[in-house]
User: Fold this.
Amino acid sequence: MRSYTLIAPAKINLHLEIISDRPDGYHELVMILQSIDLADEIYLQASDTETIRIRCDHPEVPLDKSNLAYKAAELMAVEFPQAFAKYGGVNITINKRIPVAAGLAGGSTNAAAVLVGIDLLWNLGLTQSELEELGAQLGSDVPFCVAGGTAIATGRGEQLAPLPSLDNIYIVLGKYRSLAVSTAWAYKTYRQEFGDSYLRDTDSLSARAAAIHSGPIVKAILHKDAREIAQKLHNDLERVVLPAYPQVLQLRQTFASAGVLGTMMSGSGPSVFAICESLQQAEQVQLRVREILPDEDLELFVTRMTSHGIQVASSV
Ligand code: ATP
Assistant:
């Protein structure tokens, strides 16, 4: 049986701006998404049965049809019934390293890896944009996770405009293991508290989405200027998550006091990242934060920005 091992990187948000709500219940967003080296490993093996099976030993990852990786395989079976009939189902093993429900797109990147892997397993020859279109049916972050790197994301987050990649900018990432923030709760609360300021007419919406392209953070990215990028980080969801989760606020303040270039919550949280000058500084910050917050529940990772999305590590 053929098999593929894929690397599925997490993402952080360098910019997350909520500009309106949408008739489909989602929000109209302007984001800059960035892949990081912290990644799950996905092992895909064709089975000669008609079933899709998920294996994962992380207690918070569902093994049933609600797993986004399962949904990705199911979507491929529906979209390509002849290939499904020819090659059969898939066994999917998820080696989870990305913290779950952390605002790091863990489920989305697993789904993207399954789309890329099944395309290879079934010899479909899909293009990147075809894979992204399939991904958009599964979740707003899935299309970005396919190619990864650095990109402006608008609409629900599925409309992508790639930016030049940022390699070798080191970050420290922190997440309390027992703390999970529901993405749906964060957006709903934001709507309740700040919905009055949403843009309503299409011209203003398009103008706001276009403004990011010439805005200061994109300029900093084009110059690959880590210091400038760190100073221009922005996340609207901090306005609702930080007041409701004092530990997240404290973690962010602790990073800021440790002399990093800049710090921000990722997505709907609760993970917080800090941009550092070098690998050495990132390691020092990790130690310093560990000293100030000696809580075993707090996971800290030193990682870096990366230019790639889903990658094939090996095939047999
Ligand atoms: P995003 O940043 O895209 O909002 P997230 O990083 O906040 O996502 P996930 O790690 O994707 O969140 O997990 C959200 C929920 O999805 C979890 O509570 C988990 O039960 C469920 N889930 C489904 N499939 C997966 C998967 N493959 N990996 C992790 N969680 C999954």
